[in-house]
Amino acid sequence: MRLNVGMKEKPRDDKFRLTNKRTGKLASASTWLKDLAACAVLKGDNQGIPTLLPLSDAAKLLIHNELKKFTPHEATSPKPGIESSHAQIRALACLAMPEIADFYLKNAIGDRSSTQINEKGFRHWIIGELANPLSSLNKFLRTHPNFSALAELNRRDNWWLDRQKRRVNP
User: Fold this and answer.
1) Number of domains comprising the chain
2) Which of 13, 24, 30, 57 has the fewest CB atoms below 10 angstroms from its CB?
């Protein structure tokens, strides 16, 4: 039985993973130890330290699987000002609340009396404005260097209520 059929280059232990021959996807039984053992089987290393690896398991896995070069995805860092994690978005929303409130007072309210302005109406306005990509609030947030990640943010009323509470009581 030839185990190195289909291998075009000598495997390096840290760059090859067991993949299914039919689908090409990562094998479900693939672990770093079994991948290392499969490399040892294909290289013919059966003396010394490689004997501590599960070589018999690797030989069985190589019947329906093969070693293929595996390149892990590199983590992409977001552009400055565009936060991606939930915690960063929450913190950014808390920081942006005074700016959004100022924008609300200057542009949305108009000549309404102060008795007609309340927190729930403010949150409702935020949600409605962020839902519309062409709204004045979205345009404002996109042009602001620090708050561009909040543009078109889809969150419910309770989420914004929590941001208001945390802004008042940090």
Assistant:
1) 2
2) 24
Domain assignment present for residue 8? The answer is no
Express as a percent the part of the chain with pLDDT over 70: 78
| Phi, psi (degrees; rounded to nearest 5) at 85 | -80, 160
Domain membership flag for residue 81: no
* pLDDT at residue number 68: 87
In Å, how far are 6, 30, 115, 150 from 67, measured between CA atoms? Answer: 9, 10, 71, 44
The confidence band for 2, taking pLDDT boundaries of 50, 70 and 90, is: very low
Residue closest to 21 by CA, chosen among 63, 73, 77, 57:
63
Range of the domain at 93: 86-168
Classified as helix, coil or strand, 89 is: helix
